[in-house]
Input
Amino acid sequence: MVSEYVVPAGGTAVTRTVANLNTSIPGGSGRFTGFGDATATLSYVLFRGTSSDQQGIYRSTTSGTLSRVADLTTVAPGASGAHITSFSDLSPGDEFSEYDAFVATLSDGREGIYLAKGSNLAKLIDTTEPLDGRTIDHLFLSRDAIEDHNIGFKATFKDGSQGIYAVVAAFPEPGFAMTTLPALIWLGLPRRTKPK
Output
């Protein structure tokens, strides 16, 4: 079960059930049979829900509206028709941002960071793209990766090195793919050196 502890201004704190095993899967079929990562902002809860043959990212507003962000039927943007096969690293936007973010693995084996504005998705970066002249191995987000239009992420590379990056990324208009990383800033983490 996913629950939200709500403390209204001047009121009594209550616990609200966001989703449980009796909840119908929005945009899918049947009911949830399990739950994974969950995180929240002041206005909604973002969580990963599963069933025997389904998995997805779902969003529930404080008013109780439950919607699908993405699931295993979702074709990832900028991925030549590959669809999502798993999700991790949910990061909700703050009160000033227009999107949430998550890491997903795709049916062609690539891994990417995707921005979600409702059910509209945009790719930030994936492992087919070189970064700092290196080949990306894995991508990671923290739960607090987004502030306004700024998003930070960690990348590990095939050569064993790693880096932390910050991007200023406004959500693109529908149908417009984010083909380059705007205002990419390398924040640190030196290359790993092999012991002699």
The chain has one domain: 2-188. The two ends are 51 Å apart (CA to CA). The mean pLDDT is 82.
